[in-house]
Amino acid sequence: MTALLEVEDLRVAYGKIEAVKGISFTVEEGQIVTLIGTNGAGKTTTLRTLSGLIKPKGGQIKFQGKSLKKVPAHSIVSLGLAHSPEGRHIFPRMSIEDNLLLGAFLRSDKEGIQKDVQRAYDLFPILGERRKQAAGTLSGGEQQMLAMGRALMSQPKLLMLDEPSMGLSPLMMQKIMATVAELKASGTTILLVEQNAQAALSLADQGHVMEIGKIVLTGPGRELLVNEDVRKAYLGED
Ligand code: ATP
To answer: What SS3 state is found at 140?
Structure first.
């Protein structure tokens, strides 16, 4: 069976700085795969490259067996890759509902769109309660929910989440992680970038530890969670 996403020897540079130095990994349909690692490891750069926002210097990206090399960024969403970016990038003056609807800009099935708006409100009731309010009035965690909800509106085959737990209270973080698990249970495949290694590895079928542009360790989430090196480096243990 072909993997949903295949990344092979991916290299990405900003001018002379090589941020991603030849990484390879796959995401099988129905899995949660996580990239963990400290600041500057190249995780965000990897997601931005998969979304077509940065052109790679080398390597291969295949989605459903098809190379993304010649696919322009604006067409990548229509293939089924959605990205909930770090820093959220919601539109603060627009209403919560309009922000969600933006995620469906490629769709014309009105009924389906309404259904998915409702699904976002079921996942995140606060968004439904405040649907007519400006998105900028939401708290950081709520904006993160909106960014996830918006990414889901394109009915992605692969949902890429960049640091969904960043800046959130422990309670909010639990809520977001529970939603990630729920999305997986409903069949969404997820590529999760996180600095919170504990939370990410607990959910992930497969995890990859990145350090300065390279994958240095790979394994099932639960195995990495008990790996001594991972515990020392990322889970704050001596
Ligand atoms: P973080 O969690 O802090 O986002 P990350 O693992 O996602 O970390 P990246 O943001 O991908 O890491 O950064 C990888 C490297 O590329 C870092 O050294 C960073 O300084 C560099 N970098 C990122 N964006 C740019 C840019 N626009 N121009 C130049 N260098 C960049």
So the answer is: helix
